[in-house]
Design brief:
alpha/beta, Rossmann fold, 2 domains
Length: 484
């Protein structure tokens, strides 16, 4: 039987997230094709170059910002073995140009396509033409076969094969969500998103929002608790609360089975969908942190980014609900958007600053990036921005202006001025990280660390001490009020 080596080329958040797409494919191949000889090379926890062993087929999953690394590794595989190398993941599904080292690419979700490919006698062009949902290069052009139908009954997909991952590494106690340390695992209970934000490639990749049944979700949650002793489960859906009826069913079963007394949850929500009853359900489930794409403190920019589906006031209301129910939120913000003026940018900064002393907003700011298949990408092409300079992408706010050289920035603000402003956003993100230290209970070393970081951030010991003290005092006031 063929040996398949799957490769996670991308390092996940805090390098602590098992690559769920790859492990889902492994589970599907084992259940429906009885392919058992499957291994994982994982950039999160090993040197994939040194760890490569003889194999029959290599499959590499990559997002756009990591495609250069995927190409380099594919070239390395080809230099060692004369075997097929397959590219999967978001990048090939949205960019739709297959890099030369790869023999073929898998478009969209890969479970059924990979099963059919593994069952082929060989990868001749004649055979590949009959496989739906792939692409390959022929005569210098990328050729696409007929699209493959979506898997509408997601429950057909077995629970991801996490056993192929390095569990000694992934089950270490770590903090991948604000304020909480423990054995943390992730899961996905749906695919896609019902919304169409102009910057997001989710709709292009997944096509249509679909979800696993509540029963299937509970089965996986109980497995993560029982088999892997998970203490924290991060539900990694684009929008976990998209289907309120399903959420109600999941909530009911979690409370009924006492799962809320065994594990903590984090999930992603939207400010225009969150309300008092929804927050109460999340609280009952023991959701301890939410994530919200707040994007901007300028209503003009927010209207553009999210197609007038939410408002600044709704973002503030979501934070109010976070405080009411004692569930902090990670709010993500985008800087350097098309049409964004300096005033718009400063409005976003003011929004974030207004919550510096609150434990209920942990801000994360990113440089807006044009990804293939999005309206951002089309905008960049119209404006003559070199969006094809994928290896120059900058998403995290850099600490050196030269890291912006050649980057496909979408902002009209001059680079020097833009850099100086986004350093202020980075400062607020660092304060958000400091709040994690303060929130951890009965840990004097964490408090000392918070003060040390505050002095470094402010570059002024007295000012740093004052700022951290204000945060601590506000935390104490809220705790005494019984909100946490």
């Amino acid at each position: 039987m063929r040996k398949l080596t799957l490769v996670n080329i991308s390092k996940g958040f805090a390098s602590g997230i098992i690559p769920l797409g790859i492990t889902s494919i492994s589970a599907y191949l084992k259940k429906y094709g009885n392919f058992q000889n499957i291994s994982l090379l994982d950039s999160n926890c090993q040197d994939i170059y040194k760890s490569l062993e003889p194999t029959d087929i290599v499959g590499i999953s990559s997002v756009t910002q990591d495609i250069k690394n995927a190409v380099l590794f594919a070239e390395y595989v080809k230099s060692r073995y004369d075997i097929p190398v397959i590219l999967g993941g978001v990048h090939i599904s949205t960019y739709r140009k297959l890099p030369a080292p790869f023999d073929l690419g898998v478009i969209g979700e890969g479970e059924e396509t990979m099963l059919e490919l593994m069952q082929l006698q060989d990868f001749s062009k004649e055979r590949l033409r009959r496989v739906k949902g792939i692409c390959y290069n022929e005569n210098g052009k990328t050729v696409f076969t007929e699209p493959r139908d979506l898997i509408y009954e997601l429950d057909r997909i077995p629970i991801p094969d996490r056993d192929i991952a390095n569990l000694d590494y992934y089950l270490q106690r770590r903090q991948i969500i604000p304020y909480h340390v423990g054995r943390s695992l992730t899961m996905i209970s749906s695919r896609g998103c019902p919304f169409t934000c102009v910057f997001c490639s989710t709709k292009v990749h997944w096509k249509k929002f679909r979800s696993f049944s509540a029963e299937r979700v509970l089965e996986e949650i109980e497995l993560l608790i029982g088999k892997y002793q998970a203490e924290i489960i991060h539900i990694f859906d684009d929008l976990f609360i998209a289907d309120k009826r399903r959420l109600t069913e999941i909530h009911h079963e979690i409370v009924k089975r006492g799962i809320n007394n065994k594990v903590k949850f984090m999930c992603l929500v939207r400010s225009d969908m969150i309300d008092d009853s929804t927050m109460k359900m999340l609280k009952d489930m023991n959701v301890v942190v939410t994530g919200i794409g707040m994007e901007s403190g300028s209503q003009k920019i927010l209207d553009y980014l999210k197609r007038r589906t939410t408002t600044i006031d709704k973002n503030r209301y979501a934070i109010e609900l976070s405080q009411k129910y004692g569930i902090p939120t990670m709010g993500s913000f985008m800087v350097g958007n098309p049409g964004e003026t300096e005033q718009d940018l400063l409005q976003t900064l003011d929004f974030i600053r207004s919550y510096r002393y609150s434990p209920y907003l942990a801000p994360l700011s990113y440089v807006s990036t044009a990804f293939p298949g999005t309206e951002f990408w089309d905008y960049g092409i119209r404006k003559g921005i070199n969006v094809e300079a994928i290896d120059k992408i900058v998403m995290d706010i850099p600490d050196d202006i030269h890291k912006l050289d050649g980057a496909p920035l979408l902002t009209d603000i001059p680079k020097e001025r833009f850099f100086s402003i986004i350093q202020l956003f980075a400062k607020e993100t660092r304060y958000g990280m400091i709040k994690r230290y303060i929130f951890l209970p009965d840990n004097i070393l964490s408090i000392a660390k918070a003060y040390a970081h505050g002095m470094i951030i402010e570059k002024n010991p007295l000012k740093g001490i004052i700022e951290i003290t204000r945060i601590i005092i506000n935390f104490i006031k809220i705790k005494m009020a019984g909100c946490v």
